[in-house]
């Protein structure tokens, strides 16, 4: 089977809800990272054979194939097709895996995998709310109800169930959340994100133009005491808004190519796709899926947990990476080295390729060889991608 290589990765700095990226239309936001990927590689834009873009809220400004709209808002020629993917929080990680599969199959040589989400302009859950307003009910069908009677699938409840199942305390989750901010602060101040972030021009209320280059969600004044003082999401629970991922606007992209494309276009690979897989799991506890998915992925790849030099485990809620490390025996010091979504934000459909951009940066900074990316997804699923830095 042919190999698939990542030759460039980029992301925007995250924007808070109603924050610095609120005036960016999501198609333009997506187009900005497509342009940056072309700039980073110097490749002829016409050589791109497909754009696969993850997006969860595919309504309103993100409707009508946001991927194609982003292409039309970019410097890519009209000849470049595009399609949009929804695998919930794993949407752009799945886009990357689809891109790698296209290259490995030999049917394509140059594919851009990307993601975009403007959670300010297209609020979370909007797609599920609209049908109910029109009298057609919600996404849970009568046959789903028969299989899962009187159960409302909820990521919030799933996160609490994970905490309970793995015996995690509120103090553990609060400490992890504080560490996410501490690591993100240290990484930002050290310039660790500099090479992965594309600067975007923003205009403030007074008409002043500046460049957005720092993740807006980081609380540079965060304290453990402050985090501990945030109220619980539910009575007798363990999680709070401070131990949950932040609503975020953003976009990200990676370019995946074949060995043939490396030679034809003079590209230098950052990493090789070593393994990719996907697992469906219990949709009720929902967010536990990265654990069995990683166990299976490592077994299929013939690897052990200690073979991995850096992990990106999406911080949808603190209970997910804490349970992950506890159950699998992964070194916490290797997980989300530069902080995660609790501090940096979780722009849903953009988070997959966003995390890959960060993972590649960490591997380079730490001199690591193998990196593993995974994330919990609505409906009880998880993607796992293992890369080898070159």
Account of the protein in words:
- The chain is of the alpha/beta class.
- The protein has 13 helices and 13 strands.
- Strands 1, 2, 3, 4, 5, 6, 9, 10, 11, 12 and 13 form an eleven-stranded mixed β-sheet that branches.
- The longest helix is centred in the middle third of the chain and has 20 residues, at 170-189.
- The two termini are 19 Å apart.
- Residues 5-259 form the Thiolase N-terminal domain.
- Residues 267-389 form the Thiolase C-terminal domain.
- This is Acetyl-CoA C-acetyltransferase.
- It holds the Pfam family Thiolase_N.
Work out the helicity level: 25-40%
Instruction: Report how far apart the termini are.
Output: 19 Å
Inertia-based shape: globular
* Count of helix runs: 13
Structural class: alpha/beta
Give the structure's gist in a few sentences:
The chain is an alpha/beta fold and 390 residues long. It has 13 helices and 13 strands. The strands form 2 sheets. Strands 1, 2, 3, 4, 5, 6, 9, 10, 11, 12 and 13 form an 11-stranded mixed beta sheet that branches.
Properties at a glance:
390 residues, 13 helices, alpha/beta, single chain, globular, 35% helix
Please render the helix and strand layout as text.
Layout: E1 5-12, E2 15-16, H1 26-41, E3 50-54, H2 66-72, E4 82-85, H3 91-105, E5 110-118, H4 126-133, H5 142-147, H6 155-165, H7 170-189, E6 197-198, E7 200-203, E8 209-212, H8 224-228, E9 248-257, H9 259-265, E10 271-280, H10 290-301, E11 310-313, H11 319-328, H12 341-344, H13 351-366, E12 370-377, E13 381-389
Parallel strand pairs: 1-6, 3-4, 3-5, 11-12
Antiparallel strand pairs: 1-9, 1-10, 2-9, 5-9, 7-8, 10-13, 12-13
Helix pairs in contact: 1-2, 3-13
């Amino acid at each position: 089977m042919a190999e698939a290589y990542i030759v460039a990765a980029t992301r925007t700095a995250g924007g808070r809800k109603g924050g610095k990226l609120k005036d960016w239309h999501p198609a333009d936001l997506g187009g900005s990272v497509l342009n940056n990927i072309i700039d980073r590689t110097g490749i002829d834009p016409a050589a791109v054979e497909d754009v696969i873009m993850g997006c969860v809220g595919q309504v309103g400004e993100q409707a009508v194939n946001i991927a194609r709209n982003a292409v039309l808002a970019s410097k890519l020629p009209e000849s470049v097709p595009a399609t949009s993917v929804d695998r919930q929080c794993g949407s752009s990680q799945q886009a990357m895996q689809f891109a790698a599969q296209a290259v490995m199959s030999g049917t394509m040589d140059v594919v851009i995998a990307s993601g975009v989400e403007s959670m300010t302009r297209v609020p979370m859950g909007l797609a599920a709310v609209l049908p109910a307003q029109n009298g057609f009910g919600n996404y849970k069908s009568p046959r789903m109800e028969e299989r899962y009677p009187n159960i409302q699938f909820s990521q919030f409840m799933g996160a609490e169930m994970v905490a309970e199942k793995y015996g995690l305390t509120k103090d553990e989750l609060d400490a992890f959340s504080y560490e996410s901010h501490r690591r993100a602060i240290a990484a930002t101040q050290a310039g660790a994100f500099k090479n992965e972030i594309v600067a975007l021009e923003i205009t403030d209320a007074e008409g002043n133009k500046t460049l957005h280059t720092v993740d807006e969600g980081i609380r540079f004044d965060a304290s453990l005491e402050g985090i501990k003082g945030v109220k619980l999401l539910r009575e007798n629970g363990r999680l709070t808004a401070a131990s949950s991922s932040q609503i975020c606007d953003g976009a990200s992209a990676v370019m995946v190519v074949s060995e043939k494309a490396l030679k034809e276009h003079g590209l230098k690979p950052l990493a090789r796709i070593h393994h990719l897989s996907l697992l469906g799991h219990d949709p009720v506890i929902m967010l536990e899926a990265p654990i069995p998915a990683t166990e299976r992925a490592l077994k299929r790849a013939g690897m052990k947990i200690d073979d991995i030099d850096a992990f990106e485990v999406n911080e949808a809620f603190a209970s997910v990476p804490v349970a992950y490390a506890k159950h699998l025996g992964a070194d916490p010091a290797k997980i989300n080295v530069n902080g995660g979504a609790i501090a940096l934000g979780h722009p849903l459909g953009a988070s997959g390729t966003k995390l890959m951009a960060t993972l590649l940066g960490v591997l380079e900074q730490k001199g690591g060889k193998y990196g593993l990316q995974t994330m919990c997804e609505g409906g009880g699923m998880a993607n796992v991608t293992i890369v080898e830095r070159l």
